[in-house]
Design goal:
Elements (H helix, E strand, L loop, with lengths): L6 E5 L3 H11 L3 E8 L2 E7 L7 E5 L9 H13 L4 E5 L3 H10 L3 E8 L4 E7 L5 E7 L1
Parallel strand pairs: 1-4, 5-8
Antiparallel strand pairs: 2-3, 3-4, 6-7, 7-8
């Protein structure tokens, strides 16, 4: 089989704050901005990977989930335990400095991991964990 990652989804709780973080802080390009019935979906990605995108979605909008499930999803987003993404860079320390300067919540300063990467972590405006790694 020949498969590629096209989209990955992360929830957002504030479309404008998320757009600012992913576009203005991380440098992703905005590829699509779709609104419907008071909700908003944002598609962003790296200019160097036009075939791969992150879709920022309003949380718990699937009509197939119950109110109890929706509540759990929203609680998990608030705790930062619902979703995460791992990004890669050749300069994790430089990226860390730039993202930290934006005021983003630091979850972990850059460290060398025993599994062969140097990485750091932030929480995006919705609370999602954003881990940034530099391969050794």
């Amino acid at each position: 089989m020949d498969l590629n990652i096209q989209y990955t989804f992360l929830p957002h709780t504030d479309a404008e704050a998320s757009l600012t973080f992913y576009r203005d802080v991380l440098g992703f390009e905005l590829r699509n901005d779709v609104g419907y019935d008071g909700m908003r979906w944002l598609t962003l990605g790296s200019a160097s990977q036009p075939e791969t995108s992150i879709v920022l979605t309003p949380p718990a909008v699937d009509p197939g989930i119950t109110d109890d499930e929706r509540r759990v999803v929203e609680e998990m987003i608030a705790k930062g335990t619902y979703a995460s993404i791992v990004l890669s860079t050749p300069d994790v320390d430089g990226v860390f400095d730039a993202v930290q300067a934006s005021g983003a919540e630091v979850a972990q300063e850059p460290i060398d991991q025993p599994y062969g990467v140097r990485d750091c972590a932030f929480r995006d405006p919705a609370g999602n964990m954003v881990r940034i790694q530099q391969p050794s």
